[in-house]
Amino acid sequence: MNILRFTSRFSNIIFVPKNVKYMQIQPYLKRTTVTVASKGIQGAIRDEIPEAGRKWVGRWLYGCSGMVFGAVVLGGLTRLTESGLSMTDWHLFGKRPPVSRDEWEKEFSQYQAFPEYKLKNRDMTLEEFKFIWWMEYGHRQWGRTIGTFFLLPAAYFWHKGWFTRAMKKRVVACGVLIGFQGLLGWYMVKSGLEDRFKDPSDVPRVSQYRLMAHLGSAFVLYSLFLWNALAVTYPPQKIQQVTAQARKFRMLAHMTKGWVFITALSGALVAGLDAGLVYNSFPKFADRWIPSDLLALSPTLRNFTENPTTVQFDHRVMGTVSVCLATALMLWCRRGMKLPPRAYTAATALGAVTWMQVGLGISTLLLYVPVALAAMHQSGSLLTLSCALWLTHELKYVKKIPK
After folding, report:
1. What is the pLDDT of residue 7?
2. Of 15, 38, 114, 347, which alpha carbon lies 20 to 30 A from 66's?
3. Domain containing residue 108
4. What integer pLDDT is reported at residue 196 of this predicted model?
5. DSSP letters of 288-313?
6. Are residues 330 and 347 in contact, defined by beta-carbon separation less than 8 angstroms?
7. Using one digit for the tens of pLDDT, what is the confidence trace for 35-44?
8. Residues 303, 227 share a domain
């Protein structure tokens, strides 16, 4: 009899052909042996991880995703309060905040040497500077806290053997992305400190391209944490029969998820160019459906990333398409389509959150970008992406008929 024995750190696993009866292999089995007939190596390895280990890994992943969510919100507030350029240096492990008036004066004098103060904030007092400095300091320290919250439990769980081989690769990828995100944040801030703003009418700001990259990498990191947390705690459900309509529904769900992500990136361009402060009317642009300065820059391609009017126009169109796609998914799943049970709830949540996001965006525009509404709108983009991720996660096995 050919029996393959696999010894691991937790148990012995015996792989047995399907046609071999239990009585034939009973002498080979021990109390710590798991018999695998059809689950395969991945299912066997999953069984090795104790239930308590899976629960703690899941909680940790949810915690990491929540902290990245908080970093996005805090970063949005930092940008909206124009605090991002208040710290003019960067230290890998941070630095002690000023405590005495002399130290605050020194920090303020460093800020005064850069374009934002010279061209925009020459009337700023020390107390006003302290506010924007603390906002940026809090954002940076929150990012370092994320690194600590990720690294220490990851090392412990790795040592305990609570990561599968696939999860180890994802954990390494997340760790690299956290470090990259920190470096990218400083690279973004540095663009606003460069001596490239000469005219008094210039508005010192960070590069919209670097802002988009910084926000986009944060969204990717958040998505990785949330997706793996769902995989550990709520594995996707299977259905007995997969129809052609269900497959098309899955394709549309993935397309919607990608579109929501791209729409969020276009929102970063809006933020980087302060494009929300032009044409504060809806649905028309002033009294026109198509603004007259839509393609004012030359060459034409520059308009899509450097013209505030074009950037706002694109973001409006993309938001409209997003809500149409999400609404189509919400209505389609109610037409008797056979899907995994939780997929119906996820599709409904996606539709509802997308409509809420559109409402927040219109309100932010009409009210000339108040800080509270703008921050909620940015957070709403992450909520919308979360629902899209949840839906596609639940549709993971809507590919072919399960064996």
Report:
1. 44
2. 347
3. 51-234
4. 77
5. BSS-TTTT-SSSGGGHHHH-HHHHHH
6. yes
7. 334 444 344 4
8. no
